[in-house]
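Private note to self, pasted from the team thread so I don't lose it. Backbone tokens:
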């Protein structure tokens, strides 16, 4: 009977360790699946927030032009080479980064289009910031935005976007080019003389 009990005990011990190993393996598989789902959700969130990493926005103003932006960095906001945030005009309740670019080009005061440096899009709060050099915005040009930081007494960024600051859920887009179409050339040549 002692021998029988030893055999039963050893058999139970062996099956328990196998079950424990299987349970641990199952938890690892579940954790791997969970992290894969998290990565897929993050990718899905980015694709919803950033439908195009290189948006091209057509100007609807009298001087027809197209503005080209590139995603400079994900999980970050644009800052100037001097390490300071840019002066910005902000739009709220913006669906995605492409809509943000469109607002910066077509809804901001038209005199600002030649001063635009890029934009930040904050996915979670759906906030769009159109970025300009320090002292670009004033009482008149800031009226087209929901909010602006031009009145704050802190120094602002200047020059082309070259740096970022880490910020989860934010996307920094840099203006990389602007093209005038024939109508735009006519506008500038006939209105400048």
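Design output:
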């Amino acid at each position: 009977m002692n021998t029988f009990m030893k055999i039963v005990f050893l058999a139970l011990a062996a099956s328990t360790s196998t079950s424990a190993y299987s349970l641990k393996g199952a938890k690892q598989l579940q954790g791997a699946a969970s992290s894969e789902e998290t990565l897929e959700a993050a990718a899905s969130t980015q694709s919803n927030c950033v439908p195009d990493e290189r948006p091209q926005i057509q100007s609807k103003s009298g001087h027809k032009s197209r503005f080209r932006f590139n995603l400079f960095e994900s999980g970050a906001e644009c800052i100037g080479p001097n390490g300071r945030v840019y002066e910005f005009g902000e739009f709220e309740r913006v669906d995605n980064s492409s809509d943000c670019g469109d607002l910066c080009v077509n809804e901001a005061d038209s005199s600002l289009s030649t001063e635009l440096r890029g934009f930040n899009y904050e996915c979670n709060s759906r906030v769009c910031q159109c970025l300009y050099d320090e002292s670009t915005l004033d009482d008149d040009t800031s009226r087209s935005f929901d909010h602006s930081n031009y009145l704050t007494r802190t120094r602002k960024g200047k020059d082309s976007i070259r740096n970022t600051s880490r910020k989860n859920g934010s996307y920094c887009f840099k203006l990389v080019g602007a093209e005038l179409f024939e109508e735009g050339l006519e506008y500038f040549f006939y209105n400048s003389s």
